[in-house]
Amino acid sequence: MVYPGGIDLDFITITNTPAEGRESRRKYVHRRVMHNYHKRRRMRRCNNDTCFAKTSSTIDASLPQSSVDQAEESIHPLGPVIRSIHGSSFGPTCLLLPKIWVTTGNIRTSQTIMQFLRSCPRRSGQDLANVPFVHQRIGLVADANNPLRACQSLFRKHTSTNDEALWTGVHEIQEEIYIKCATFDKWKLLAASQAMILLVLLRLRHGSNHDAFPAADIALLYSLQRVFVLLRDRFCDREALLSGIEPFMAGKHGSFENL
To answer: Of 21, 4, 1, 5, which is closest to residue 255 (Cα–Cα)?
Structure first.
């Protein structure tokens, strides 16, 4: 698309007079943004996305409860699932819940992926080779101080996710990693990150926070973030990572800042 003035706005134009044509560029960006917004909105409506689907608030409150349940199920194919989540004891602090899909294909794909992820803690208890993200240098970390080995030992002892001792052990591993990860070397940090991921997947498998570890959601996610930040700051080549966005940042001063 070409705005009045003959300059193709699909490409970055370098100019010595950035103020020239500024109003036209603003109008173009506004039209383009609104066009894309309405396009996405129409697509979501066509796909019957949940954010535009009818809610239970549209149902007459005077109807009997059985009629309300039937109406909700007719409006939304996942009515019982949504009610079970919103009406559960999870509360707004539950951070780990699977996304609710509407289309049949997305539901099946999500269920398959979640089934695989939830099986990772159990399979890792049998053999760490079954963990798809285990690194090849796991043997460089002594078994006595290996967070991943500690998780494997814990999973072998407890076969049910309802065991209080299991979540007590999860809390101990999480706390030890959070406190001591600043002193870990590279391979032990990798083992710690994989151990934290397994603990998060175990929490997903259980479905909610256990009474023995009521703050599991926030504690596991916060500890995982801390380990990843240490890996990034110490061992990632930040110059190589930043070099990939240099062209974008360089173009920012010549185009976007002048809008």
So the answer is: 21
pLDDT along the chain (259 residues), means of 10: 51 64 79 82 65 41 46 41 41 62 84 84 77 62 76 86 89 92 88 90 86 87 91 77 54 41
What are the φ/ψ torsions at residue 162 (nearest 5 degrees)?
-90, -5
Using DSSP's 3-state secondary structure scheme, residue 237 falls into coil
**Phi then psi for 8, rounded to 5 degrees?**
-75, 115
Q: Following DSSP, what letter does each residue of 36-60 receive, concatenated?
A: HHHHHHHHHHHTT-GGGS--GGGS-
Distance CA 5, CA 14 (A): 15
For residue 149, the Cα-to-chain-centroid distance in whole angstroms is: 25
Residue 2 phi/psi, 5-degree rounding, is -120, 125
- 57 burial (CB, 10 Å; 0-12 / 13-18 / 19+) is exposed
Report CA-CA distances (Å) from 223 to 17, 175, 176, 216, 259. 50, 8, 10, 10, 41
The Cα–Cα gap between 177 and 171 comes to 10
pTM for the model: 0.55
Q: What is the DSSP string of 157-172?
A: H---TT-HHHHHHHHH
CB 213 within 8 A of CB 167: yes
* Number of Cβ atoms within 10 Å of the Cβ of 53: 15
